[in-house]
From TrEMBL:
It comes from the Eukaryota. This is UBC core domain-containing protein. Residues 11-162 form the UBC core domain. Keywords: Membrane, Transmembrane, Transmembrane helix. Residues 173-199 are annotated as: Disordered. It comes from Linum trigynum.
């Protein structure tokens, strides 16, 4: 890079050249970005789609335009590769872009912005400027197509840099997952849904064979264990279990109600026993007091006038 073309005392130029050096000395497998020789304020970049998403295996090119006040003002971003998440050749709205300068921090760099852009790929667009909301299948198809050839954009110098970055990313990016692998992983929850009616029917039979005291407990367990998302309402066995759990069990048969009923029946007898014990204690206390009083009077030579035979 012809550094003599630029004023090295300029804070923006000094910062950009520092970032270029850092990008070249510490490359990443997730992204690559370099400025043009003729204009270090314009960068070409490519990111790879984040793993375990519909973008996995894709290589997405774009353009970064740094302002003259960089790093005190944020850059602008434009995607060049069709991806189904952002429009192409349109400045996208992100918290790290010039659409939201209030969020930008001068300590952030091109590397920081690219890491953030990768993280934004699988998020919900929420109608943001320059965002798209394609279906996952369409995004996977675009991810596969993005590897075939680099996008065409700008002057021959730009195109040469884009092609160079594309070759580098092809050597680092994993292949796009095969459709049969994706289909098998998506069919796994479907098998669970097919097994849910069978398990529910077995639970219904268990509910019918359970004793009176176990019926409500079994019914409540069935309702808790069968996830709502796996229970089709129009399934007859499921409806039978739901009716058994909510309607067919009489409230009087619930264990908690039986305990309260027994307590209510036994409460009069328990109250009578308590009263008898209280009166016996009172009588014993009076007898002890009289006996002590009698001994006291006898020891002082007095005869109790209220007692016979003393």
């Amino acid at each position: 890079m012809a550094e003599d073309k630029y004023n090295l005392k300029n804070p923006a130029v000094k910062r950009i050249l520092q970032e270029v050096k850092e990008m070249q000395s510490n490359p990443s497998d997730d992204f690559m970005s370099l400025p043009l020789e003729e204009n270090i304020f314009e960068w070409q970049f490519a990111i790879r789609g984040p793993c375990d998403t519909e973008f996995e295996g894709g290589i997405y090119h774009g353009r970064i335009q740094l302002p003259a006040e960089y790093p005190f003002k944020p850059p602008s971003f434009m995607l060049l590769t069709p991806n189904g998440r952002f429009e192409t050749q349109t400045k996208i709205c992100l918290s790290i872009s010039n659409h939201h300068p209030e969020h930008w921090q001068p300590s952030w760099s091109v590397r920081t912005a690219l890491v953030a852009l990768i993280a934004f790929m699988p998020t919900n667009p929420n109608g943001a400027l320059g965002s798209l909301d394609y279906k996952k299948d369409e995004r996977r198809a675009l991810a596969s197509k993005s590897r075939e050839v680099a996008p065409r954009f700008g002057t021959p110098e730009r195109q040469n840099l884009i092609d160079e970055i594309h070759e580098y990313m092809l050597s680092k990016a994993p292949p796009v997952p095969q459709p049969d692998v994706l289909q098998s992983s998506e069919e796994h929850p479907t098998n669970t849904e097919d097994e849910a009616p069978k398990e529910t029917a077995a639970a219904a039979e268990e509910l019918a064979n359970a004793g009176p005291s176990e019926t409500q407990v079994t019914a409540e367990r069935i309702v808790e264990e069968v996830p709502e998302a796996l229970v089709p309402i129009d399934n007859p066995p499921v409806q039978a279990v739901i009716r058994a759990a909510t309607l067919e069990v009489p409230p009087a048969r619930r264990p908690s109600d039986q305990i309260r009923h027994r307590a209510a029946v036994q409460s009069p007898a328990a109250g009578a026993d308590d009263r008898l014990f209280t009166w016996a204690a009172v009588g014993l206390t009076i007898a002890i007091v009289v006996l002590l009083l009698k001994k006291f009077l006898k020891s002082n030579g007095h005869s109790p006038v209220f007692m016979d035979g003393s």
